[in-house]
């Protein structure tokens, strides 16, 4: 692993607890994606723990156990071994132990996926907690973990990318950092010296609208206007390539009173094209359709193509059962995190990983109508969103199946 020098901001995150900020009860690092805050903070957390305590317990928390292992622990343990810490990992049990200079401590891994997760951390006594991407965790889990830090000298460590301004972590922790005696440190992409000018420019092209302001500029801003404003450009739509496609997938948003939208995707040259659609609105047509009639529409859309799988709205239990009963197609329930999915769709469209063909007229129409609510929270208006949902299902479930967090970049000094 090659290392280069840390930036000034990264050095502050690394050594705040042994410099002039040592009397603070914790640290919050927020700001742009890929700004180098995560690894610096995690190395700092372990270093502080090993120099301050022995025979004690600590916690590293992410949205899920899988994400905390992948995004935090894997690069962290490699870095710790390189700088002289002795690691004994039992990651299958969500534990690792660290020894250094005669001190030995245990570190537990927790996932804060939903409100029920707070029960997982009850009962344990901790000397410190690191929350990776804390804004993605439920407040009840975070507050339960904070309550576990009852040992004298314990400290709290938070990092996150910005969300909407009324998010509980922004209002209760960042805005009250001084009141809670927490050291606050804001990061920008330029604070990571590992990112070259070309890579910085690349990330700036990935996002638009509120996602650009949050993930590139690091601002807590409200989503407003069109969800995909860049799709107002006609150059973002394409003709269907006259080629033999390598693979086919269909994504389905199912409705009875609301419209049903099925998108046919074809893979060519590493790019997925939405080459055709089935869109049925009972209000527009004047009558509703049964599950069997929607299945006939699905078969007409597929034609004689070899469809790898059908990705279906997870709430459409009756329609999934009809598809399974016929035994012609392999089905998969869609991942349905709306905000994560919108972010992934935005990135995929901007990168050119997916392309929308002009013949998908209802999908093209919805791009011009799909808007954020005006409430200040991250929620799109539940209108003109059916093709948008089947598009999101495809990207979140199939395209991003094993790559939902992109590239990890960091800098370290010997």
Tell me what you see in this structure.
This protein is an alpha/beta fold and 414 residues long. Helix content is 33%, strand content 21%. It contains 13 helices and 15 strands. It has helices at 8-15, 37-52, 65-82, 139-147, 168-174, 197-206, 209-215, 282-285, 291-302, 317-326, 338-351, 361-367, 386-399, and strands spanning 26-31, 57-62, 86-90, 95-100, 103-111, 128-132, 155-160, 182-187, 237-238, 247-253, 260-268, 271-280, 309-312, 331-333, 354-357. The strands form 2 sheets. Strands 3-4-5-2-6-7-1-8 form an 8-stranded mixed β-sheet, with helices on both faces. It has a 7-stranded mixed β-sheet with strand order 9-15-12-11-10-13-14. Strand 4 and strand 5 form a beta hairpin. The protein is elongated. The protein starts with 7 loop residues before the first helix and ends in a 15-residue tail after the last helix. Mean pLDDT is 90; it is low at 402-414.
- Radius of gyration, taken over Cα atoms and rounded to an integer in Å: 24 Å
Structural class: alpha/beta
- Number of E-type strands: 15
- Beta strand %: 15-25%
Counting copies of identical and different chains, the oligomeric state is single chain
Mean pLDDT: 90
Read across the widest sheet, the strand sequence of neighbours is 3-4-5-2-6-7-1-8
Helix count? 13
Q: Could you give the order of the helices and strands?
A: HEHEHEEEEHEHEHHEEEEHHEHEHEHH
**What's the helical proportion of residues?**
25-40%
- State the major sheet: 8 strands, mixed
Shape: elongated
Low-confidence stretches: 402-414
The termini sit apart by 11 Å
């Amino acid at each position: 692993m090659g290392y280069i020098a840390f930036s000034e901001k990264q050095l502050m995150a690394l050594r705040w607890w042994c410099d002039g900020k040592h009397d603070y009860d914790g640290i919050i690092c927020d700001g742009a994606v890929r700004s180098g805050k995560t690894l610096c903070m995690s190395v700092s957390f372990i270093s502080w723990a090993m120099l301050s305590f022995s025979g004690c317990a600590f916690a590293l928390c992410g949205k899920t156990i899988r994400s905390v292992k992948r995004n935090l622990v894997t690069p962290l343990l490699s870095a710790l071994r390189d700088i002289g810490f002795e690691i004994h990992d039992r990651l299958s049990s969500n534990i690792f132990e660290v020894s250094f200079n005669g001190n030995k401590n245990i570190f537990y891994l927790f996932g804060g996926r939903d409100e029920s997760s707070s029960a997982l951390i009850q009962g344990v006594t901790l000397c410190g907690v690191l929350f990776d991407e804390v804004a993605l965790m439920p407040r009840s889990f975070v507050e339960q973990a904070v309550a576990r830090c009852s040992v004298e000298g314990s400290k709290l460590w938070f990092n996150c990318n910005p969300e909407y301004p009324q998010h509980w972590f922004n209002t209760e922790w960042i805005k009250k950092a001084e009141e809670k005696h927490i050291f606050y440190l804001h990061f920008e992409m330029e604070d990571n010296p590992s990112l070259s000018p070309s890579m910085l420019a690349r990330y700036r092209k990935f996002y638009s609208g509120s996602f650009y302001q949050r993930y590139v500029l690091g601002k807590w801003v409200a989503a407003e206007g069109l969800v995909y404003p860049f799709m107002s450009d006609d150059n973002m739509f394409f003709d269907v390539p006259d080629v033999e496609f390598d693979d086919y997938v269909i994504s389905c948003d199912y409705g009875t009173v609301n419209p049903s939208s099925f998108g046919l995707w074809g893979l060519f040259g590493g790019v997925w094209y939405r080459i055709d659609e089935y869109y049925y609105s009972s209000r527009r047509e004047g009558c509703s359709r049964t599950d069997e009639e929607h299945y006939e529409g699905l078969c007409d859309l597929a034609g004689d193509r070899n469809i790898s799988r059908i990705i279906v709205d997870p709430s459409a239990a009756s329609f999934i059962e009809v598809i399974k009963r016929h035994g012609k197609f392999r089905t998969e329930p869609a991942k349905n995190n709306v905000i994560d999915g919108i972010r992934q769709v935005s990135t995929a469209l901007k990168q050119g990983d997916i392309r929308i063909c002009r013949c998908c007229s209802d999908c093209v129409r919805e791009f011009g109508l799909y808007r954020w609510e005006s409430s200040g929270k991250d929620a799109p208006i539940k209108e003109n969103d059916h093709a948008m949902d089947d598009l999101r299902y495809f990207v979140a479930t199939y395209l991003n199946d094993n790559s939902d967090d992109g590239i990890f970049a960091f800098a370290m000094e010997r």
